[in-house]
Each structure stands twice: as structure tokens, then as C-alpha cells.
Amino acid sequence: MCPTITSTGARFAAVGADFALTFPPDPVWVRACRELVRTSFDTVRRAAGGALRELAETAVLLTSEAATNAVTASATAGCTRPVTLCGEWLAHGALRVHVQDAAPGVPYVDTPAEESEHGRGMLLIAALASRYGFCLDGPGPGKSFWFQLEHAPGTAA
């Protein structure tokens, strides 16, 4: 089982999540996902220090990539079920973000052709996240992809 926020019901209802958004699998919603993560940093005043400001930028980038992957997987499969993004601040100051979609298949790191305009999202996540993974044992069909970011020890929260 992947590290997950407690969920209830038929869909990924993020009980205990610090922020969540359920949206149709349409690329226009990826911007809202980025803004939600950015707002979370601002709201909890965690982005005051330089290290956490950088963490916020990384979180926004990786959220954009993960949400785009879920939307793309859904579109490719003809899946119209909603995508859910949720995040939680962990006790030690780390941020974990989950993106759940109902599309079949699993995310994987690929090496796209140099001239390709797509296919680098998982490379970025693998390079920048402290931890990441997916699980298939969530509520309903599809998968829950997650990544975690941690600020460097000794930096101000």
C-alpha cells in the first residue's frame, strides 16, 4: 500500500488532506493544480525562507507534471472519470502530493527522443522528488501516484 491520505467512499475523498481538488481530466485544470499547491505554501506560511521558497517552486513543477500525466493517461484511455489531487504536510515539514486517476496503466520513467516535446515529466519527478511511487490498491479503478518533497535539514520552516 502506498503512503496515502485516509480515503473514504467510492472516490478518493481526501479526509485529513491539507488541500484537495477534484477536476475533469482536461488540461485546462493543470493550472488550477499548480495554483492550489502554490497557495498551500502561502497559506501555511511555509515559503518564507529561501530553502522553502525553492521547495515551493519544485512542488509546483512536479504537481504540474503529475497532473498532466493523469490528464494525458485519461485522455489516451478515453476515461472521463475525474482526477483528484490532494496534498498533506507531514510532521517533519515534508510535503506529499497524490494524484489519483481512473485510467489504466502505470507511470514510468522513460527516455524520450531528443526532439520529442513530451515524455519528460517522470524524469523530472525522479530527479527532484525525495520519494515517489504509485499504488493500484486505492478506491476504484486506476492508480494513485504520489511524490514527496523534503526541505534540507537545518533550513528554516
TrEMBL record:
<keyword id="KW-0808">Transferase</keyword>
<dbReference type="InterPro" id="IPR003594">
    <property type="entry name" value="HATPase_dom"/>
</dbReference>
<dbReference type="GO" id="GO:0005524">
    <property type="term" value="F:ATP binding"/>
</dbReference>
<dbReference type="InterPro" id="IPR036890">
    <property type="entry name" value="HATPase_C_sf"/>
</dbReference>
<keyword id="KW-0723">Serine/threonine-protein kinase</keyword>
<keyword id="KW-0547">Nucleotide-binding</keyword>
<feature type="domain" description="Histidine kinase/HSP90-like ATPase">
    <location>
        <begin position="37"/>
        <end position="132"/>
    </location>
</feature>
<keyword id="KW-0067">ATP-binding</keyword>
<dbReference type="InterPro" id="IPR050267">
    <property type="entry name" value="Anti-sigma-factor_SerPK"/>
</dbReference>
<dbReference type="Pfam" id="PF13581">
    <property type="entry name" value="HATPase_c_2"/>
</dbReference>
<protein>
    <submittedName>
        <fullName>ATP-binding protein</fullName>
    </submittedName>
</protein>
<keyword id="KW-0418">Kinase</keyword>
